[in-house]
């Protein structure tokens, strides 16, 4: 039984690694709807998500990176936006860029212009 548990853990490690940061494909959470919400509320979140004035132009959905909601542990919630539909957090680890999550904390997204 112990060997079976170890085998299952070993086999599942590559799948678990996908839960950190990615493009939203092949992950347990979908950021497409969240990215559209952020785009609708861009005027309210752009200063948090894009600290550099040059990056505050209207982004496209390709400019966002899906982030594991667990990344918000220990971050300070800055505000709720869009009638409370978004929770936005400040992140010093990402060069001052903030990130926003849906209200259910099912998906989070960070602005990452290309």
Helix and strand topology:
Layout: H1 2-17, E1 21-22, H2 32-40, H3 42-49, E2 64-67, E3 76-81, E4 86-90, E5 99-102, E6 108-111
Please give a handful of descriptors for the protein shown.
114 residues, disordered N terminus, 6-stranded antiparallel β-sheet, globular
Relative strand content: 15-25%
Q: In total, how many beta strands?
A: 6
Question: What structural category do the secondary elements indicate?
Answer: alpha+beta
- Taken together, the total number of domains comes to 1
Q: Major beta sheet, specifics?
A: 6 strands, antiparallel
Cα end-to-end separation:
48 Å
Radius of gyration: 16 Å
Strand order of the largest sheet: 1-2-6-5-4-3
Describe it for me?
- By secondary structure, this protein is of the alpha+beta class.
- The chain is built from three helices and six strands, in the order αβααβββββ.
- Helix content is 29%, strand content 22%.
- Mean pLDDT is 75; it is low at 1-27.
- Strands 1-2-6-5-4-3 form a six-stranded antiparallel beta sheet, covered by helices on one side.
């Amino acid at each position: 039984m112990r060997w079976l548990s170890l085998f299952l853990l070993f086999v599942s490690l590559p799948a678990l690694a996908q839960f950190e940061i990615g493009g939203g494909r092949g992950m347990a959470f979908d950021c497409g709807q969240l990215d559209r919400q952020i785009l609708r509320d861009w005027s309210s979140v752009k200063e948090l998500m894009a600290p550099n004035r040059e990056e505050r132009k209207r982004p496209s959905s390709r400019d966002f990176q899906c982030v594991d909601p667990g990344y918000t542990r220990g971050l300070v919630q800055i505000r709720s936006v869009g009638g409370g539909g978004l929770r936005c957090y400040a992140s010093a680890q990402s060069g001052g860029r903030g990130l926003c999550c849906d209200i259910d904390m099912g998906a989070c997204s960070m602005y990452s212009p290309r």
